[in-house]
Design brief:
Two copies of one chain form a homodimer. Chain A is an alpha+beta fold. The first copy, chain A, has three helices and seven strands. The radius of gyration of chain A is 14 Å and the shape is globular.
């Protein structure tokens, strides 16, 4: 069988810490990013998350008709980890990531694209 | 900085199709799997998902205090794709995966472990 899904892992560095700690800003940015990508939102869930070293980031996921977009932020490291799982065409992951990079004022991005079903790992890209 | 999180991608093949199509069974199995791993459930969301080739799998995510566990199933391919993102110790991902493999009667497993923050890719394992 050909690949069933596409799973993009993204990491943003050098973000504005206060933005990554703001639950409502993260939630709103994630929902706008999903809309920008053309995906269809089913439901979402976001909460504050206490990291081991005392930070208070945000964790959350948007369940979309085409799969999911999840985020975990570490304001104390100015860092956000994202994963965007999509099935089928018609979802512009790049648009979603660009929206989030702008929302968090990210300076760097690392990206890894995987195929799912069966699992295949692409090249790690930085920019 | 050392790694902030651990992201395990798992794929199960040869599952029992009727189990992968059963929204309540998938939801209950995911919640039991999270509990078995020792993680703390914050909230969860599951729904039926229509795939391009007419299948009706289940998509869902459990947001845990330690990050998330997400699933997408394709009963028509007897296939399930999972990802388990954890931060900090104390979460036994293997226990969660073993619980789900048993619940879906999976015959095969592929596993990829990644470090997040910064992103590093491990070896793809099959069994």
């Amino acid at each position: 069988m050909t690949s069933l899904g596409r799973h993009i892992l993204a990491e943003f560095g050098g973000c504005e810490a206060s933005r990554l700690a703001d639950l409502e800003l993260v939630r709103a940015s994630m929902l706008e990013a999903v809309r920008a990508s053309g995906a269809t939102i089913i439901t979402h869930s976001f909460h504050h998350f206490a990291s081991q070293d005392g930070g208070a980031g945000v964790s959350g996921a948007v369940i979309i008709a085409e799969s999911h977009l999840a985020i975990h932020t570490w304001p104390e490291h100015r860092f956000a980890a994202l994963d965007f799982f999509t099935c089928g065409g018609g979802v512009d992951v790049r648009k979603a990531l660009d929206h989030l990079k702008a929302a968090f004022h990210a300076e760097t991005e690392e990206l890894l694209e995987l195929e799912r079903g069966p699992l295949r790992v692409g090249e790690l890209e930085s920019r």
